[in-house]
Write the structure tokens for this entry.
Amino acid sequence: MQSNETQRDLVRNLSFLKLWLQRPVSLGAVMPSSKSLAAAMAADIDPAAQGAVVELGGGTGNITAALLESGIDPKDLVVIEQEAALCRVISKRFPDIRVICGDATKLRRLLRAAGIDRVKAVVSGLPLLSIPKRAERLILAQAFSVLAEDGAFVQFTYGPRPPVSRTIAAGLDIVGDRSHWVLDNLPPAAVWQYRRRVEMPAMACSA
């Protein structure tokens, strides 16, 4: 059984590598996220909270698997993937979840068409640091336009730099915190969680 799963992982990894050789910028990583990294991203989401979880850039489904293993109900999980070949991989691997083959810069439109109106978390496997800034800002703006007020945007990155530029974060009024280091990923990765900035109430002045 384990040998069969290992073989399936190898086939999925080779499929991902083939696509990366064709479009390295759009995929970002040479290989899919490791199980440790996927588990760290899933750990940032409360499976009991109300609303859908939207995964951007499903790849071969490693993060999808971790989300399901963490307790996310399959009916609450939606994967947005632009590459048709990877959409087929995820759909075959997880027949009980919704897979939408589309562009994350059109996220609001895609979710509206699918009848999804409440999103508690967006989990991104997209290479934000390697895509044009305009696309980065548009993806984040779309994500926060569909997220609940207390919703989280979870993103991984390689190295110590935040995955969202400070200029874009300030413009969208969002703040990020690094929640996990995953040293056994190749290369080592960090998981960041972004939320809307919460204004602290003004202190009342004593007479």
About this structure: Residues 10-22, 24-28 have pLDDT under 50 and may be disordered. Helices lie at 2-22, 24-27, 35-42, 62-69, 84-93, 107-113, 133-146, 166-172. The first helix runs from residue 2 to 22.
